[in-house]
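Moderator note: this is an archived Q&A kept for reference. The question asked for a predicted structure of one protein chain; the sequence and the answer are reproduced below.
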Amino acid sequence: MGRDHFPNIPIGAGMGFARGVMLLDDCEGTCTWLFDGTGGDDVHAYATAAAFTGTYGLRLKTRTTASADNDTITAQKLFDFPGTGLLVARARVAPLIVANTKSINFGLRIDNGVQQYVAYFRLAPSVGKAYYCNSAGAWVEIVAMATPYIGSNWYTVEIAIDCLAKKWLQVRFNGWTADLSTLPLYNDAATAGRGALLILYTLATAAGPSEIYADNIYVGEYLES
């Protein structure tokens, strides 16, 4: 798609992003994500230890006090509905302690003014698997993506969807690509709103808390073949 953004120019008030770029977050500035979690002493902030590149990355950690199975911490970012209808999201993520992290969930929610659709891709470090969310809202394993996870290792995740046809395009992880282009998205609600939402969250195992890092987070119109 060419350059992700145009360079600054002397007369400009700030950086102007190229058409199609909806988010390009290196986690170096002010943390403006929306957060929600189980509560207590969970962590959600940019942190030096969480950086893949640069000085900071996004650190998410479920509560330590009274840590329990399925504790969660979620980061979200709102967007306009994509102009082309084709949307891609990618990020680099790292689970710190594999046995403590039941899942890392990376998703897009689309509100088209009538219905709400979601596309979730799930990494399951504690069991070495990966899943996608099907049209019934159930998790389906992508057998070809099964692999042992390494603590603190960085993984690139990507999901691409067709917002107009309400279907998957593909998911990518750890050098693999899974073609899901025949599969519809999960329709989980009616809505009068119109827009898109990026969602990143982690679930802890009973051994938790779960702590993950994320960096180089991108959302844009899907223009690849």
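Archived answer notes: The radius of gyration is 17 Å.
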